[in-house]
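At this stage, I needed to go through a protein sequence along with its fold in token form, as given directly below:
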Amino acid sequence: METKTERSGLTLAAILDTALQMAAAEGLDSLTIGEVAKRLGLSKSGVFSRVGSREALQKAVLEEYDRRFMQDVFVPAMREPRGLPRLNAIMRLWLQRARDVEIRQGCIYCAGAFEFDDREGPLRDLLLDGVMRWRTALKRTVIQAIDEGHLLPDTDAEQLVFEMDALFTGLMRDARFLRDPRAADRAWAAWQRLVASRLADPSRFSSATRSASPR
């Protein structure tokens, strides 16, 4: 039999799942205690008692999105050797998550960047912090690939991170707005060409860059 604490935890998980879907599809501003309660068949007080205010709900959604993203992409990639194998794993897992989650539901970081690009406040700051922490992790991995001798020593790490992020943003637009079913495959092909142009030793890593598109 479930304890009261376990039931409360399950309800909080359901609240965050519902709120994540709302935020991804309709924007962070769409989140209200009342609407989440309505969609779950709960009372407003039941939702409020678990997450607090609307602002606290929005913050919890961003934190949960960041946690899930890192768990799906960054954590498993860290099991790969430093350098290009890890960098390739990050992009493969990133695109795999896009297929499994973001293309269907939307990306909170992509949508949030446009939703809050001309607005100030704590929610924008939290959103920006998540995006910048991810870009910092990408830059660190690119630098490691340079240090390991996998990428050319004159590789501009910040430029490569920009291009990786731009690939994902382009994928999301083509997949969701243009409804191109091959958008993820096109993004992977673009990544293969991009990294191949920066290889320090093409004969060593060319087969890795030609690996199959993530599924």
Q: What stands out?
A: Confidence is low (pLDDT under 50) at residues 1-7. The chain has one domain: 4-209. The radius of gyration is 19 Å. Residues 35 and 44 are 9 Å apart (CA to CA).
